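Need the bound structure for FE2/S2 (inorganic) cluster, inputs here:
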Amino acid sequence: MNSVTTIVHSSVGKKVLMGVTGLIMVGWLTIHMAGHLIMFSGQDAYNNYAHFIQSGFGLEPALLWGMRLFMLAAIGGHIWAAVALTQQNAAARPVAYAAGRQNRVTTYPARLMRIGGMFLLLYLIFHLAHLTAGVLSGSEFAMGGKPWVKEDAYANMIHGLSNPVIGVVYLLATVALGAHLRHGVWSAFHTLGLSDPRWDAIKSGLGNLVPVAIVGGFVVVVLAAMGGVFAPPDPAWHPPAHWLH
Amino acid sequence: MKVTLKVWRQSGPDAEGAFETFTDVPVDPAMSFLEMLDTVNVQLEAEGKEPVVFDHDCREGICGACGAVVNGLAHGPGKRSTLCQLHLRSFNDGDEITVEPWRASAFPVVRDLMVDRSSFDRIIQAGGYVSVRTGSAPDGNAMPIGKPVADRAMEAATCIGCGACVAACPNASAMLFTSAKVSHLGLVPQGQAERDSRVLGMVDQMDAEGFGGCTNHRECEAACPKGIGVEYIAQLNRDLVRANLGSAAK
Ligand code: FES
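Answer from helper R.:
Posting the output first, comments after.
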């Protein structure tokens, strides 16, 4: 009671964790999306950007793993809070309304947070396997029969999206992400205590702008890849010698 | 006009409950919902049967005693209305109306439509007060409070503790109630001394009572007969973080 640990064990504390980890992911997604726009600058530029990330931001390869572990912790915390709160919420109303509880104002993005979140997790695992780890290298279905080459992220992206079925999966995931963020960004600010009505414009402004910007960026890149807007990758492209020490 | 009523009947906290249907109940559009239940009860008593038990007191929308879920809506289809302020003109001739108690593990059914809301009292006891020296009343305006702050505190203080926020919430969360009770004191100077212990204690008690957490559906705000807004939930969240950081620093 009345202890510093309230923040850890209380429902509000779990929501604070949910909000903070969510905003960390939003920050990461913004950079991820902006990086993808470099696709429009061609194979050299995009592969240089990918190498910059892969080499630990040009500093130290271990930094990449630090970043990955940090993101993994954020995702883990987000999921843990979601599961714990969902259990608490389910226990709070053991007997459902016979006439069915009617909603007055809530929105579909808000109601789909849990199922959408689970879909995004499945997508994330697929996406990492597909383009980050290259486990589907050479697959006719998922890579257009081309090998996955770590240093040639540009070619990986184009081959990976050459099958419209895969492209549609990516587009669906992007839409699901948009819906998740539509409710999540506003909620995160709300949970983190932006209560004054003066903040309302910022809360709903960013709550709308962030999902639109992130989804818009990803959709443009996926559609461009599917529609053949990007120049075909040069099969003779080789990473510069100094990348491979 | 006539309506068909499906009312939740349960003879005690541990008894098995079921709906009882009253067909062709004659009603007047100007009747309040509670007056309709009164007519049903007069009839039941004439037949030597147990009347439908429901909470009520002021019947003018100010005490917070009444409340039931009508066709899936807390306090029924009215806007900013308590059940006692809902009138039969909100329904049509021949309507079937389902009436059930608030459903939450923290609001166990006492009997029929009456639930035990003492969990709310225990949340108040965990910090929803100010400790003051008794004695003669202080001079009016001895403590200047800005009008916007006073208004926000007053809006939170209009909470009548009816429990509709819990009943309407998909998670049976008591965040709107608790946040209103934290904020109406926390916003004014008199509430500052206990501001941190108040929010810590009340949130602890709220969770201990078995209420759910807030997922920002804003159903509570839409069901609240006093129109109390979810900005108080954000205020509570901020106060809780602040209180934790404050006591961690000490
Ligand atoms: S009986 Fe008092 S608010 Fe309805």
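Comments: Residues 106 and 183 of chain A are 10 Å apart (CA to CA). The two ends of chain A are 57 Å apart (CA to CA).
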